[in-house]
Amino acid sequence: MEPRLKQRLLQFIEEHIPLFHDKRLQSLQSLKLDAVLKRKNPYLFKAKHVESAPELVKQLLDAHLSSQEETLFGDFLEGVAIEVCAAAYDGRKSTTEGIDLEFDREGVRYLVSIKSGPNWGNSSQIKKMREHFKQARRIYGQKRQLIAVNGCCYGRDGKPEKGDYLKLCGQEFWELISGDAEMYRDIIEPLGHQARARNEAFHREYAQVINRFSARFIADFCTADGAIDWPRLVAFNSSRSRKATA
Fold it and tell me: Could you tell me where the DSSP H helices lie in 104-194?
């Protein structure tokens, strides 16, 4: 990696990765058991034969946190990508709806919609992205050559040509925005900045949440003999009034 680009990348990650960890911890600290129970599918866990209250609570919490962390880290990686491109090609956060990054390279204006990985959306969401690309082309007109790109921070796509846009994933995406074929590997090491200390704090809080949620779940959703009261749990999750529990 070119030294100037490396220094800028390191500085950005060291300044911003703590924000990801802070948001992750704050989200855990503010989480309520009721919110988790209302958002997750109780039928799935019954079908998996989960019969231990602490295990059910853990699986519910892990599923919730995994989804939330993907969103938080996706936002962070988008910032990294914009910063890398800013250093390499004077790239910038776009003001055009649906476009995250725009930059010029070898006489071509690239309009980029950044996603975390290749399997990011359904057909309706992909259609919406295409509409944003189409709208952006109307805004820019025919003054220059434009290439629309769905850039994915990790993964692969064996058929990048999608007709009206390119889908570039992993190495191909990072190389496009940086000009460096090894950028996709170079960014991994700095991401570990303060990770151990930050994760220790997170796991201390995580253990406490598991304990609090388990005690509350047993009190509210278990029978006197300790079995999970599935009808009551399903009623809390899905009934019209949600008055099946205190």
Answer: 123-140, 171-178, 183-186
Q: Which position has the token pair 């082309």?
A: 137
Residue 218 one-letter amino acid: I
pTM for this entry? 0.81
The DSSP 8-state label assigned to residue 45 in this structure reads: H
Q: How far apart are CA 191 and CA 194, in angstroms?
A: 9
C-beta separation of 72 from 23 below 8 A: yes
| CA separation for the pair 2, 120 (Å, rounded) | 31
10, 13, 21 from 198: Cα distances, Å: 18, 14, 7
Torsion of CA 53, 57, 58, 62, to 10 degrees: 160
Residue type at position 89: Y
Closest CA to 9 of 73, 69, 102, 86: 86
pLDDT one-digit tens code per residue, 120-139: 989 999 999 999 999 999 98
- CB distance 186 to 84 below 8 Å: no
What CA dihedral angle connects 171, 175, 180 and 185, to 10 degrees? -30
Q: CA geometry: angle at 20 spanning 16 and 1, to 5°? A: 45
Dihedral angle over CA of 57, 58, 61, 64, nearest 10: -120
State pLDDT tens for residues 66-112: 888 888 888 899 999 999 999 999 999 998 999 999 999 999 999 99
Instruction: Please state, in angstroms and as integers, the Cα–Cα distance from residue 185 to each residue in 89, 101, 142, 154, 205, following that order.
Output: 19, 21, 36, 11, 31
59 Cβ neighbours under 8 A, 6+ residues apart:
45, 48, 50
* Structure tokens, 124: 């309706």
Angle 77-23-236 (CA atoms, 0-180°, nearest 5)? 115
